[in-house]
Amino acid sequence: MSFPTEPTAYHKTVLSDLQGAWSNLREAVVQSAGFPDWELALFHIDEAMSWESVRDLAVMRQRLLLVRNRLRHAEVPDDVVGCLEDVNAMMDAALQALREGDID
Asked: Structurally, how many domains does the chain consist of?
């Protein structure tokens, strides 16, 4: 009986960059906790990073809209806004890669 071996090399894709952008946004929100609705923003960020959202970028895109709405209407620090812009850009890139067949 043979056992599958774990790959030793991974191909970096736009999805790994998207995951990193979400992680940075989450960290920025946690570090800046206290602004209005920060807890709801954190909830939606966690939902966007959930397995269901990662498997379906349309679901992630919906979660991003909720996060954007929460953070755009609150007095949030500039670093949170910058991280949100990074997630937006990476989401656009991931959706474009999906349309072009670069990712599954």
From this structure: 1
In a domain, 8, yes or no: no
% of the chain surpassing 70 pLDDT: 91
Q: Is residue 95 assigned to a domain?
A: yes
Does residue 3 sit within a domain?
A: no
Does position 13 have pLDDT exceeding 90, yes or no? no
* SS3 category, 12: coil
Three-class SS of residue 52? helix
* Mean pLDDT to the nearest integer, 15-34: 95
Burial class (CB in 10 A: 0-12, 13-18, 19+), 83: buried
Q: Which residues pair with 35 in a beta bridge?
A: 33
User: Is residue 89 one of the residues assigned to a domain?
Assistant: yes
Bridge partners of 33, per DSSP, are 35
The label of the residue with tokens 């949100």 reads: 84
Instruction: Show the domain range for 84.
Output: 14-99
pLDDT digits (tens, 9 = 90+) for 30-56: 999 998 889 999 999 999 999 888 889
